[in-house]
Write a structure and sequence with these properties.
The complex is a heterodimer of chains A (625) and B (84). By secondary structure, chain A is α/β, with parallel strands linked by helices. In chain A, α1 runs antiparallel to α2 and α1 (5-23) runs parallel beside α3 (44-55). In chain A, the strands form three sheets. An eight-stranded mixed β-sheet of chain A has the order 16-17-15-14-13-12-11-18, with helices on both faces. A five-stranded parallel β-sheet of chain A has the order 2-1-3-4-5, sandwiched between helices. Chain B is an all-alpha fold. Chain B has one domain (4-83): Non-ribosomal Peptide Synthetase Peptidyl Carrier Protein, Chain A (Orthogonal Bundle). Helix content of chain B is 61%, strand content 0%. Chain B has helices spanning 4-18, 40-54, 60-65, 69-83. In chain B, α1 (4-18) packs across α4. The longest helix of chain B has 15 residues, at 4-18. Chain B is globular and about 35 Å long. Chain B starts with a helix and ends with a helix. Classes of the chains: A alpha/beta (625), B mainly alpha (84). Chains A and B meet through α3 and α12 of A and α2 and α3 of B.
Chain lengths: 625, 84
């Protein structure tokens, strides 16, 4: 990336800026300097220098989330650790990375007393390449022999997965090699090496249980370029399994995947309109003058709209942010025959003449999400620069001049990675749109209670049945703001807790007259003697300010009483993002029992009047399905 | 005709960048033992950085066998001469 002289000069300047900021004790500024100076596709020399500079920065002090990651491989991984740590920092993590000794995968994973297990990782990446997959099948082998070989290769991985059930596991599809003595036939015959590896790659996701997520490494290798990916010099010299210059791309892909798994994926795409979603300026060119749908660049803009709409359908919230008259801008979505996007695809539609940094701040506030959950797309370098300077938390996409490159530029960031797709994801945009309607109705009410009553809110309480378990784990995983204790549970861990006689796990769904809000809260509670401890309370910020907290408190008391407890105990563990609920237990009349710099403990007697709420209970479902 | 002094000058910049030390001065008898940071990973970074700066392909194992910086300059000079 920085191979040209000007690029190298600004790269050097950024590194020395970071160094100076560290010396001055300003770790935030040091990290900001590094973030801007490199890209995943930068070569290894640059990646290594950034990684080295990052090592001097205290990432914990600037609020990044701690994460212990172990790399387990039968190839050399030392070169990847620092680079991976940088891209994990970029994704919001303060990672501690350990590498198990070279080629000790089986011992490290299967021995419960190994260095790996004793290190207690949060995440284990079982890094594999095609060299690690044993698929010995002679040419012209019968179908049964082929299937047996693939099943055995997958079973070998599954044995490793099972031994790591306490942590999040990353496994990966393997990179299919380019050179084979059989040439084309290697991928065209049922027994060919490439065919077998393809089938292995397809069998992995079918076999992977929840708690094991797959990085599509073969796709990463293809994106980077297969011929360059296999750099035999470094395999023979030092057992590096892929070209060192691909390290940034690999590390970035894995870091974005972990961001998705741990609730740090982006949630909302903020889009400029003129020259971003269509060619030309609607205010000057008019609806018949803008380029959209026909002509070379008109088709490119329409294709970009198709991509954006597909993002919306998979759960990304869309917001428009344009310097325009609102009526003029909306007319395109209503009247232009080739506009793929419609006005109601946008949860928030901001068209005015104010500064975009302020508008973006308002968009985040309206949606009740953090600035770090936003990705900003604008064709104007000046607007991008303003947003970068004023809102460093917002991810800004570097768009090329040619609209035919817009999809690739947006996709390259891997901003919206998720490890699963659920009905909640599909419906998310609708929830946010309905919330905007609720806000409009609220404006018409003078009295808040009248408004809340008019919503006719009904909650359903249930347990962790197999259908809901993945969504419950997902909600715990992605909640940052309304999360009192910062716990993260895999589906397997949650199921194990629910099966324990002293633990009680609940989910709460909320509906009102505007629609179904879906799963909005998960509670994990633990009975110790006659006290019910609230281990986990996460809630969707969509339903803040609607007395759901009161409803949940009544529900917690009900769990306590059924469990034979007469006290509730809550805990607030401070994180970089959960200041929102620092005073929650105080507001709910709990008494503070203990206080340290990062944790406050609260208790309350269950013999007390009901907490006030406008939420009523729906007919109860069976708690243990 | 490639110039040995020019190669030493460009190689010095590469060393200064890779080892993050603008004070490094190269001399022919310098070896890995003379630089604290020159471990196996830094060796690879150095080879890649030299490849980039001189637009040549090197074999990391071959470079590892070079006994000192002077031999590295000789190798780069030979490659530059072959190209010229």
């Amino acid at each position: 990336m920085a191979s040209d002289a000007a690029g190298q000069a600004s790269f050097r300047a950024a590194l020395s800026h970071a160094k100076a900021a560290v010396a001055a004790g300003d770790h935030r500024a040091a990290f900001a300097a590094l973030r801007g100076c490199t890209a995943p596709e930068a070569d290894y020399v640059d990646q290594a220098r950034v990684a080295k500079a990052l090592a001097a920065i205290d990432l914990g002090a600037i609020g990044l989330r701690a994460l212990r990651v172990a790399l387990v491989a039968a190839s050399t991984m030392e070169h990847l650790a620092g680079v991976f740590r940088f891209w994990l920092a970029e994704a919001g993590f303060n990672a501690d990375i350990m590498i198990t000794p070279f080629d000790t995968t089986i011992q490290s994973v299967l021995d419960p007393d190994s260095t790996l297990h004793r290190w207690k990782p949060d995440v284990v990446w079982l890094f594999a390449t095609h060299r690690d997959v044993v698929l010995d099948v002679p040419p012209d082998a019968p179908t049964t022999a082929i299937e047996t070989a693939i099943a055995q290769a997958v079973a070998t991985r599954a044995t490793l997965w099972r031994s790591l059930s306490g942590c999040l596991v990353i496994d990966n599809t393997v990179d299919i090699p380019v050179d084979d003595p059989f040439g084309n036939l290697a991928g065209a015959a049922p027994w060919g090496r490439r065919t077998l590896l393809h089938r292995y790659n397809v069998a992995l996701p079918e076999a992977a249980p929840s708690g094991v997520m797959l990085l599509d490494l073969d796709h990463v290798a293809s994106l980077w370029g297969k011929r360059r990916w296999a750099d035999a010099r470094y395999w023979f010299h030092s057992r590096h399994a892929f070209a060192l210059d691909a390290s940034g791309t690999v590390a970035h892909a894995a870091a974005r995947l972990l961001a998705g798994a741990r609730g740090l994926a982006k949630k909302c795409l903020v889009l400029d309109l003129d020259n971003t979603l269509w060619g030309g300026v609607i205010g000057d060119d008019g609806i018949n003058g803008i380029r959209l749908g026909s002509g070379a660049d008109g088709e490119a803009f329409a294709a970009f709209q198709v991509f954006v709409r597909a993002l919306k359908e998979r759960g990304v919230i869309l917001a428009a942010c344009s310097k325009n008259d609102p009526e003029t801008a909306t007319a395109v979505f209503r009247d232009h025959p080739d506009s793929v996007l419609r006005r109601d695809d946008f949860a928030v539609f901001t068209a005015n003449w104010d500064n975009k940094a302020d508008n973006i701040r308002d968009i985040a506030a309206t949606l009740n999400i953090g600035l770090d959950a936003l990705v900003f797309v604008d064709d104007s370098p000046a607007e991008r620069d303003i947003v970068r300077r004023h809102l460093p938390e917002v991810a800004v996409v570097e768009l090329p001049d040619d609209p035919s490159g817009f999809v690739a530029a947006l996709a390259a960031g891997n901003w919206f990675e998720t490890i699963a797709f659920s009905a909640e994801d599909r419906d998310r945009s609708r929830y946010y749109a309905e919330n905007a309607q609720r806000t409009a109705v609220r404006a018409a009410f003078v009295d808040m209670d009248d408004y809340l009553q008019s919503l006719e809110m009904v909650a359903t309480v249930g347990g962790p049945d197999p259908f809901h378990l993945p969504r419950m784990a997902q909600l715990i995983g992605k909640s940052n703001q309304f999360h009192l204790t910062g716990t993260r549970y895999t589906e397997a861990e949650l199921a194990a807790l629910a099966a324990h006689p002293d633990w009680f796990v609940r989910r709460i769904h909320l509906a009102d007259r505007f629609g179904d809000n879906g799963l909005i809260a998960v509670l994990v509670t633990h009975r110790i003697d006659r006290t019910l401890h609230i281990d986990t309370w996460v809630m969707s910020c969509r339903v803040l300010g609607r007395t759901v907290e009161g409803f949940i408190s009544n529900e917690l008391r009900k769990i306590a009483q059924e469990a034979g407890c007469d006290r509730l105990a809550g805990r607030y563990v401070r994180s970089a993002k959960n200041a929102l609920v620092a005073g929650l237990y105080d507001r709910l009349d709990f008494a503070c029992a203990d206080e340290t710099a990062t944790v406050t403990h609260w208790t309350i007697d269950t013999a007390r009047p009901d907490w006030k709420t406008w939420v009523s209970t729906a007919q109860e479902e069976t708690l243990h399905a | 005709m490639p110039d040995r002094a020019d190669i030493v000058r460009r190689l010095t910049t590469v060393f200064q960048d890779v080892f993050e030390d603008p004070g490094i001065e190269l001399h022919d008898t310098m070896t890995a033992a003379d630089l604290d940071d020159w471990d196996s990973l830094q060796h690879i970074v150095l080879v890649l950085a030299v490849e980039r700066a001189f637009a040549v392909k090197l074999n990391p194992a071959e470079v590892g066998k070079l006994e000192n910086v002077g031999k590295m300059v000789d190798l780069l000079l030979a490659k530059a001469t072959a190209k010229a």
